[in-house]
Design brief:
The chain contains six helices and nine strands; from the N terminus they run αββββααββαβαβαβ.
């Protein structure tokens, strides 16, 4: 994998403990990593995000005493029509030695008790798009067990960290909608009936790919708005 050689040449061969994928508006966190910053354009096979609020670079180094790989942005399904657009970054993360991944996103809430400005820890998800990034994968590894897609121990650690900072952290089910158009009020009503608590246009393909690569996963939504019709 050519991207692995580039990453090791610039950031060293020490293994990474944790990966983070930053959602819309959160890309500046990558600037806090003490280490190497590698533009996606320099990493062979990497997608090129085209959405404002994303910072298309990979930062590898220390963050609060932990060696991390922070992806400053993502490519969404609606940009390319490819649900596996983030496969190369997640494969690189696994090859860098990381065993766990935290994903973030911006989402619209269905619940009045999770208003804009709050955080929601993902307990599970619903793929409302009908797309799967493992379609076409030839090996039997494509049959990924998703019964505990979001690692209980990681979720517990995030709840504890939020409590230590006196930071409200709700928990709920995230629905993936392909975008780029926003949802209609009727679609929101359907998703609520299915058990979703928030909706967004990312994350779920990355969770599936991360589980395929053997990574333990947690995810947090930043609630930016109430969903259509609410």
């Amino acid at each position: 994998m050519e991207a692995l050689k580039v990453a090791r040449d610039r950031a060293g061969a020490a293994p990474v403990a944790l990966g983070l994928v930053l959602g819309s508006g959160l890309g500046a966190l990558a600037d806090l990593v003490e280490g190497a910053a590698i533009p996606y354009a320099d990493l062979p096979g990497f997608p090129q995000p085209g959405v404002s609020g994303h910072n298309p670079k990979l930062a590898i180094g220390d963050l609060e005493g932990v060696r991390v790989a922070v992806f400053g942005g993502r490519t969404h399904y609606y940009e390319t029509g490819d649900a596996a657009a983030m496969r190369a970054p997640l494969e690189l993360l696994q090859r860098l030695g990381a065993g766990q991944l935290i994903l973030t996103n911006a989402a619209g809430s269905f619940r009045p008790d999770i208003p804009p400005g709050e955080l929601m820890l993902l307990a599970d998800h619903i793929s409302f798009s009908g797309r799967n990034p493992l379609i076409g994968e030839p090996s039997d590894a494509r049959f990924v067990n998703m019964s505990q897609a979001y690692e209980p121990a990681l979720r517990a650690a995030l709840r504890a960290a939020a409590a230590a900072e006196d930071l409200p952290l709700a928990e709920g089910v995230y629905a993936w909608y392909s975008g780029p158009s926003f949802e209609t009020p009727a679609e929101i009503r359907a998703l609520r009936l299915l058990g979703a608590d928030a909706v967004g246009m990312s994350t779920v393909p990355e969770v599936i790919l991360a589980r395929f690569f053997g990574l333990r996963v947690a995810a947090v939504s930043v609630i930016t708005n109430m969903a259509a019709g609410l």
